[in-house]
C-alpha cells in the first residue's frame, strides 16, 4: 500500500464493469481486500492492456484506440469512475477461504447445470437427433438449378462440404473445378 503497510488479500478474481458509457471493462486479477473502503483500479494494469489514460483539469478519460470506454472526475485526490458490476459476466476466482463463501452464495450463477446433457434434450425431454449433421470435408453432389445451366449441362456438381452457411440457410461447398465456394440447400451427401 502507499503508506508502507500491508493488508490481507482474501481472494483474487476477474470482474467485469459496465461504465456509464455502456462499455464493458474487464479487470483481471482483482484483489479482494476488505480493509480498503474504496475500490481502486491500477492505471498501470490498464496501460498493460493497451488502454490510454488522460488526466487534465480535474477530468479523467479512459480510451482504447478511438473508443472512449470511461470518464471520471477528480474528487479530493482521486479520480472517480461511476460503473456497475456486471454480475454473471465473469465468474473466475482463486483462493476460496471460508469467509468468502457467504459472499459467493449471495451471487449464485443464473446458469443451470446440465449434467453433461445437451440443452435441447433438457428443455424438450426428448432424445436429440444428429442425423442432419455432416462431416466436414465429405464429398457431395450439389444440384445446379435450371436457370444456372443449359439443357445439355450436368445437373449436379461434385463438391466438398465446408460447413454451414453463416448468414443464409444452407450449406457451403468447395467446387474444385471452378475453385469457388458455393452455397446450396439442394444436395446429396456421400458416406465415405
Short description:
The protein has 192 residues and is mainly beta.
Describe the overall structure.
It is a single chain. With 192 residues, the chain is mainly beta. Among the domains are: 11-85, no CATH class; 138-189. It is built from three helices and 13 strands, in the order E-E-H-E-E-E-E-E-E-H-H-E-E-E-E-E. The protein has helices spanning 43-48, 98-104, 119-124, and strands spanning 11-19, 24-32, 52-56, 59-64, 67-75, 78-81, 83-85, 92-94, 139-143, 156-164, 171-175, 180-184, 187-189. It is elongated, with a radius of gyration of 28 Å. The model is unreliable at 89-93 (pLDDT under 50). InterPro entries: PolX-like_BBD, SH3_retrovirus. Residues 138-192 form the Retroviral polymerase SH3-like domain. This is GAG-pre-integrase domain-containing protein. Residues 1-51 form the Retrovirus-related Pol polyprotein from transposon TNT 1-94-like beta-barrel domain.
Question: Using only CA atoms, what is the Rg?
Answer: 28 Å
Shape: elongated
Helix amount: under 10%
Low-confidence stretches: 89-93
Assign the structural class, choosing from mainly alpha, mainly beta, alpha/beta, alpha+beta, or little secondary structure: mainly beta
Strand residue percentage: 35-45%
User: What is the arithmetic mean of pLDDT?
Assistant: 80
SSE run: EEHEEEEEEHHEEEEE
Instruction: Determine the N-to-C terminus distance.
Output: 66 Å
Number of strands: 13
The DSSP helix count reads 3
Major sheet summary line? 5 strands, antiparallel
Q: Taking strands numbered 1, 2, ... along the chain, how are they ordered across the largest sheet?
A: 12-11-10-9-13
Amino acid at each position: 500500500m502507499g503508506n508502507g503497510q500491508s493488508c490481507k488479500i482474501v481472494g483474487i478474481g476477474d470482474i467485469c464493469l459496465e461504465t456509464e458509457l455502456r462499455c464493458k471493462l474487464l479487470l483481471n486479477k482483482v484483489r479482494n481486500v476488505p480493509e480498503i473502503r474504496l475500490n481502486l483500479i491500477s492505471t498501470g494494469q490498464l496501460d498493460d492492456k493497451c488502454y490510454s489514460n488522460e488526466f487534465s483539469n480535474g477530468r479523467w478519460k479512459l480510451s482504447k484506440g478511438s473508443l472512449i470506454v470511461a470518464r471520471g472526475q477528480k474528487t479530493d485526490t482521486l479520480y472517480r469512475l461511476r460503473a456497475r458490476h456486471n454480475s454473471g459476466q465473469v465468474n473466475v476466482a482463486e483462493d476460496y477461504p471460508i469467509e468468502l463463501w457467504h459472499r459467493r452464495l449471495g451471487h449464485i450463477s443464473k446458469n443451470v447445470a446440465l449434467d453433461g446433457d445437451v440443452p435441447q434434450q433438457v428443455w424438450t425431454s426428448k432424445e436429440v437427433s444428429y442425423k442432419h449433421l455432416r462431416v466436414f470435408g465429405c464429398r457431395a453432389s450439389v444440384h445446379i438449378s435450371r436457370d444456372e445451366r443449359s439443357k445439355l449441362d450436368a445437373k449436379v456438381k461434385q463438391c466438398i462440404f465446408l460447413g454451414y452457411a453463416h448468414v443464409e440457410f444452407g450449406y457451403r461447398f468447395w467446387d474444385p473445378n471452378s475453385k469457388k465456394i458455393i452455397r446450396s440447400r439442394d444436395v446429396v451427401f456421400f458416406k465415405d
